Amino acid sequence: MYPIYYGIVIIVSIAALLSTIVIAKGVSKQDNTISAEDDIKKLKSDENRSNSIPLLTTIYSITFAITIILVGIFIF
Predict the structure, then answer these.
(1) pLDDT, tens digit, for every residue of 16-74?
(2) Closest CA to 12 of 71, 53, 76
(3) What are the φ/ψ torsions at residue 50 (nearest 5 degrees)?
(4) What angle do CA 51, 57, 62 make, to 5 degrees?
(5) CA–CA separation, 46 vs 36, rounded Å?
(6) For residue 9, which of 75, 76, 72, 71 has the smallest C-alpha distance?
(7) Is the confidence at residue 7, as pLDDT, over 70?
(8) Alpha-carbon torsion 10, 15, 21, 27, what sign?
(9) CB of 70 within 8 A of CB of 9?
(10) What is the pLDDT of residue 25?
(11) Burial of 9 (0-12, 13-18, 19+ CB in 10 A)
């Protein structure tokens, strides 16, 4: 039964890692295509359409919750 728990934790961790890499690549592409003038306008207007913090918070919250649940199962 324990190998199943280890497998679930590994799969969830890999999914979180891959999601983070995809988000980072998306942000990097957006940063490379923006000129300096557009970047200044974007900072002044306070538009954060590409803000990835909420998405990353969700991904890692789910990962943390699943890990805590599996550790609880493992202990009890």
Answers:
(1) 888 888 888 877 666 566 677 776 776 666 555 556 778 888 888 888 888 888 888 87
(2) 71
(3) -95, 20
(4) 145
(5) 15
(6) 71
(7) yes
(8) negative
(9) yes
(10) 80
(11) middle
pTM above 0.85, yes or no: no
Amino acid type, 14: I
Q: At 11, which helix (H) or strand (E)?
A: helix 2-33
Domain definitions of the chain by residue range: 3-33+51-75
* Amino acid of residue 1: M
Question: For residue 66, what pLDDT is reported?
Answer: 87
Q: Which residues contact 5 (CB under 8 A, 6 or more apart)?
A: 70, 73, 74
